[in-house]
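Please complete every field before forwarding. Incomplete forms are returned to the sender.

SECTION A: IDENTIFIERS
Entry label: holo-317
Bound molecule: zinc ion
Molecule representation: SMILES string

SECTION B: INPUTS
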Amino acid sequence: MSFKKILGQDKAINTLRGFIAAGRIPQAMIFHGPAGVGKAMAALEFAKTLNCLDAASNKIFDNCGLCQNCKHIDAKTHPDIIFADFAYQAMLRKEEVEKQQNIRIETIRALTAASQQKAVFAKWKVYIIDSAEKLITGAANALLKYIEEPPPNTIWILISSKKEAMLSTIKSRCQPVAFAPLSKDIITTILKDNFVEADLAEQAAAISQGSSAKAALAAEVLGDFASLPSGAAFAAGAAMSLPRVAAQARAQVASVLDMLSVMAYEQWVKEASEREANKNLLTKLVFYKRALLSNVSPYLIMEAALMAADDCKINFK
Ligand SMILES: [Zn+2]
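SECTION C: PREDICTED COMPLEX
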């Protein structure tokens, strides 16, 4: 595997390969852009390319995916390349992944302590922080001096789909690398590669706002909807078929609210006569999104949102 497996991000990938070609690697970067467009994958491919032991791959600023360094980075078992996401924090804290809401100071201390150690067998040590907008202030402050003055051959990559929510003190110390929303065709290809049936893949891609992560969840939800009755019973049926685990139910409802927003917006653009009704629906959907972040039952929000949308002739059946 190599940079080639990352679809639709030529500009970002060329920037990263350009850093290596020029021999000027920024000591801290922020990979930013929509969720599910390949930022984390690019961070790992970059770490592999910096450390790949294959001379032919080195020459073309890519990686072989087969040498010891590449294999360990892919398996996330390389001692010098740490991918710090909620799963990593859960492992450190001996907790469930679902319990991780933000990135804590102890997690950052584990990374900064590692960054001060000599490399075990990498040429470049790479520390990747996923969902960096979730750094609590204390954790962000604990990180500052390390991203400003890392030891030689040490790189920090912060990944964020909400760069605007990050502290400016962190952002100002990092080189930004922008990742673009993906085209519908690329998302359809990615979903089909992941065994989503073609029609469903196209339908999900059309309402996923350029994010393959959103599209994958949308395809799952739309797949579940296929077996539900249409008409008046649909909203209640959809609410009842939500997963019992609250976090999973919330994620599915968020996906439905996103899809309805896209559909309402498209109808708003197309149907001049329905503008007022669609505008009201969009306002309601914003309200439901906020309610979902508080403690309101996801089951209730699902039913209310589907009914409100159906009033505007926006539905999944
Ligand atoms: Zn390699």
